[in-house]
Specification:
This protein is an alpha+beta fold. It is built from 8 helices and 13 strands. The protein has 2 domains: about 180 residues, Gcn5-related N-acetyltransferase (GNAT) (Aminopeptidase, 3-Layer(aba) Sandwich); about 100 residues, no CATH class.
Length: about 290
């Protein structure tokens, strides 16, 4: 679906709020409707400085949404807390999520009060990592174990709901650079040649599934690369045991390097022969980050 065929706007009618309720169930495969954010909360947030917005196709069907509200940082400063964003499964990877986040950024900038937008996501979901870190320029240095408890929807069933908290400093030179059409990023090979070290030893099996083999906890380079599976949901269907091992090992590695002062500041997704390899880039010093 071409991005220019979409209309993104705030939700205004009761009927459209109900559409957002139904869309949540479709996006996450929710069967227990108590797990969705209801109309009353979506509407109240929208009326009091928050945002409930939808992406609509040419026929007026809602295909994606974003929902957030004003919150506070740990030191009492205002931020926008982006609680949910989702796109129908059959039209993902078509920049609809990206367009929704840009709409959200513009909305928050026009409020004039806030520079920071935060949200959570599963660090093993590579599509989300590419959007949140690789395309939008977000960073992460907070890791939460089983953040939402045990969920039974299609995407989270069987795996602890570990989450990164993304910090999106929407006025920073870093984000401006990432959102520029000509922005490029350095490759995995470039980082290695520049002295980056690798956190995990991994191997691909005959089916192209990535296996964990060893963690290096003693790295000292200014930049380290941490590989994750290319398609975590596919890996779960292939072997829940291997998927659970990835959850455990990445949890230990991220927490270790965050404690040592590293920050996730980029995400690389590169084709290697027939397979895709995905790497987080963690650095001690994040370039072009102005949190003011």
């Amino acid at each position: 679906m071409p991005e220019n065929s979409l209309t993104i706007r705030t939700i205004k009618t009761i009927d459209d709020y109900h559409k957002v309720e139904n869309l949540q169930a479709a996006v996450w495969g929710v069967t227990n409707l108590t797990e969705i954010v209801p109309l009353a909360v979506l509407l109240t947030a929208q009326e009091n400085g928050g945002l409930t917005a939808g992406a609509f196709d040419e026929d007026g069907n809602i295909v994606g949404f974003v929902f957030g509200f004003i919150g506070l940082t740990s030191d009492g400063k205002f931020k926008h807390c982006s609680h949910m964003a989702g796109v129908l499964p059959n039209i993902r990877r078509q920049n609809i999520g990206y367009a929704l986040k840009l709409f959200q950024r513009d909305y928050v900038l026009k409020q004039g009060l806030l520079n920071l937008v935060t949200w959570t996501y599963d660090p093993l979901e590579s599509v989300n990592a590419m959007l949140n870190i690789g395309k939008l320029g977000g960073i992460a240095h907070h890791y939460s174990e089983n953040h939402y408890g045990d969920w039974n929807d299609d995407l989270n069933r069987g795996i602890p709901t570990d989450r990164f908290e993304v910090e999106w400093w929407i006025r920073s030179p870093r984000v401006e650079k990432y959102l520029h059409p000509d922005h490029g990023r350095q490759s995995h090979a470039w980082h290695l040649e520049a002295g980056a070290q690798v956190v995990f030893d991994t191997r691909l099996d005959e089916q192209g599934m990535l296996h964990y083999e060893n963690t290096h906890f003693d790295l000292t380079a200014g930049t380290v690369l941490l590989e994750i599976p290319a398609e975590f949901q596919q890996l779960k269907r292939y072997s829940m045991t291997i998927a659970q091992e990835w959850r455990w090992e990445t949890r230990q590695a991220f927490q270790h390097y965050f404690t040592r002062g590293y920050t996730v500041c980029d995400f690389l997704s590169e084709r290697e022969g027939e397979h895709r390899r995905n790497y987080y880039v963690l650095m001690h010093d994040v370039p072009d980050l102005d949190e003011a």
